Amino acid sequence: ELKVEQNPLFLSMQEGKNYTIYCNYSTTSDRLYWYRQDPGKSLESLFVLLSNGAVKQEGRLMASLDTKARLSTLHITAAVHDLSATYFCAVDTLPSTASKLTFGTGTRLQVTL
Amino acid sequence: ETGVTQSPTHLIKTRGQQVTLRCSSQSGHNTVSWYQQALGQGPQFIFQYYREEENGRGNFPPRFSGLQFPNYSSELNVNALELDDSALYLCASSWALSYEQYFGPGTRLTVT
C-alpha cells in the first residue's frame, strides 16, 4: 500500500525565515502534486511535478522532485503571514487517463509576525 | 470559464440515512474524482468517473456509489450513513489528457 509521509506535521515560523517541508512516498511515481488548503476551504493547486529533477517556483514557494529518492520538498523563502495554511503533497499512481491521488497527512504552517 | 461547483455546501444527516452530493465539473473537463477528507486528515480517494464509467476506486465500501452524467456532472451517493462518514467531500475535475485536477469547494457532511 502506498504511503505518503510529510514532515513536519506542524511548523511555526517567523516572518522572513526560510524553511523546507518534506514529502516521502513509498512507491514509484512520476507525478507529485502540492496543494494548499486554508481552514474550512478546498484545495488550491500549487505545483505539479512530472519528472525526476523537476523544480518549480511561484513567488516564495519552490518545489522539487527526486523520484529516485522518492522525495519531494517544498521550500519557503522569507515567509510572510499570508502563507499560513495547511500544505499537502499527493502522489499519483495511475496511468494518465486516470488520476488517483494519495495524499500526505499535511503540514500545518503558521507564520508569526 | 466556470470552475468546479458542489452542492449542497453543508448537510446534516442522521445515522442510517442516505445522502446524495452533487458536483459540476469545470467546463471542458470529462473526468470527475471524489475524495473524502476527515477532520485533520488528508483527502482520501473514493472513486473516479471518466465518460460516465467508474475508472478507479479507493478503499471504500459499496455503500459509496456514484454516477456521471452525459454533461460530465457527477453524484456521490452514500447509503446507510455512519458517524465516521462525517467529513468534507471534495470533487475534482480534470481533462483526461491533463495531469491537473481542479477541486471544488466541498460539501461538509455531518452525521449525527
Average pLDDT of chain B works out at: 93
Distance between the termini of chain A: 41 Å
Q: Characterize the overall form of chain A.
A: globular
Low-pLDDT runs of 5+ residues of chain A are none
Summarize the structure in words:
Chain A has 113 residues and is mainly beta. Chain A is built from no helices and eleven strands. Chain A has strands at residues 4-7, 10-14, 19-25, 31-37, 43-49, 55-58, 61-66, 71-76, 85-92, 101-103, 107-112. In chain A, strands 2, 4, 5, 9, 10 and 11 form a six-stranded mixed sheet that branches. Chain A has a five-stranded antiparallel sheet with strand order 1-3-8-7-6, with no helix packed on it. Chain B is mostly beta strands. In chain B, the strands form two sheets. In chain B, strands 2, 4, 5, 6, 9, 10 and 11 form a seven-stranded mixed sheet that branches. In chain B, strands 1-3-8-7 form a four-stranded antiparallel sheet, with no helix packed on it. Chain B is globular and about 40 Å long. Chains A and B meet through strand 4, strand 5, strand 9 and strand 10 of A and strand 4, strand 5, strand 9 and strand 10 of B.
Can you tag this structure with a few keywords?
heterodimer, A: 113 residues, mainly beta, 6-stranded mixed sheet, 5-stranded antiparallel sheet, 11 strands, globular, B: 112 residues, 4-stranded antiparallel sheet
Can I get a quick summary?
With 113 residues, chain A is mostly beta strands.
